[in-house]
Specification:
InterPro entries: TatT, TPR-like_helical_dom_sf
Shape: globular
Strand content: under 5%
Helix content: 55-70%
CATH class of the largest domain: Mainly Alpha
Distance between the termini: 26 Å
Radius of gyration: 19 Å
Keywords: Coiled coil
Largest sheet: none
């Protein structure tokens, strides 16, 4: 079983831009288009280096540049080699903190600060990592106050997963009912996101609401957007099919993304 923060980081973040102000985007790159083709680490490293050169060059683009820096640093920390993770998460944390100082009313700074703190918590290990959970929750709640839609309901998704994965009081903040509330909101805001439905289904299963969980798992199979990379839609669908089968819900004649029958006992 993967550690809590590893699971959280794998699915928490999407790559689409959300409106966070009216400053123009960096004109010479199409980062969102590049990343939609897959999370290419070399492209990301080049983009990070480019933006680090540009961040102080123009007041008009600085804020959007800081958003990209915090986000790319997080993705590089999450997807890159073990030895580089803390370096990138620390960079992302610093860029997000700078953005918060300069644009405190934008959701982006609070959101990317929270995710980079998640990365640092994972690298710190379970005991030290859990100590960062209150700070992570505070940053995500602030992002939620400013813009609940940001990053495909990202703050709701992260908070819902934290309350699902963390141990309950007195060890930590785990609360399955808070998880249900946040993930239900995430699905309502961004129903096209497969991870929102998958996380909600897993919370419903823990609450023994199997019929409702079934509906959410079926929606995972129809979703069109993934929280990390588009190519990972298949991974969410496989997990949904696995949960359906484990609970003896796979319907005769239904098919997985590769076209194979998902009926019980099928090959």
């Amino acid at each position: 079983m993967k550690p809590f923060f590893a699971i959280l980081l794998l699915w928490a973040v999407s790559l689409g831009f959300s409106s966070c102000g009216h400053l123009p985007e960096i004109p010479s790159r199409e980062l969102a288009v590049e990343l939609k083709e897959g999370c290419d680490l070399e492209q990301l490293r080049q983009e990070l280096a480019y933006l680090e050169e540009q961040v102080n060059s123009s007041p008009e683009t600085r804020a959007n540049c800081l958003i990209r820096l915090a986000r790319i640093a997080f993705i590089l920390g999450e997807l890159g080699p073990k030895g580089d993770k803390s370096l990138y998460f620390t960079k992302g944390k610093l860029y997000a903190e700078t953005l918060i100082r300069e644009q405190p009313e934008w959701a982006a700074g609070h959101y990317w600060l929270g995710l980079n703190l998640c990365g640092l918590a994972e690298e710190a290990g379970p005991k030290r990592g859990l100590r960062l959970v209150p700070q992570i929750i505070a940053t995500m709640e602030r992002a939620l106050e400013v813009d609940p839609v940001y990053d495909q309901a990202g703050a709701h998704r992260v908070l819902g997963r934290i309350y699902y994965e963390c141990p309950p009081w007195p060890l930590s903040v785990g609360d399955i009912h808070k998880s249900l509330r946040h993930l239900s909101a995430a699905v309502a805001i961004s129903p096209e996101n497969s991870t929102n439905h998958l996380f909600l289904a897993e919370t419903l299963l823990k609450l023994d609401k199997k019929a409702e969980a079934l509906q959410e798992l079926e929606k995972v199979l129809k979703a069109t957007s993934h929280a990390l990379c588009p190519k990972e839609l298949a991974a969410d669908r496989r997990q949904a099919l696995k949960l359906l089968k484990e609970n003896q819900w796979a319907k005769a004649g239904s098919r997985d993304p590769a076209g194979r029958s998902s009926a019980p006992g099928s090959k």
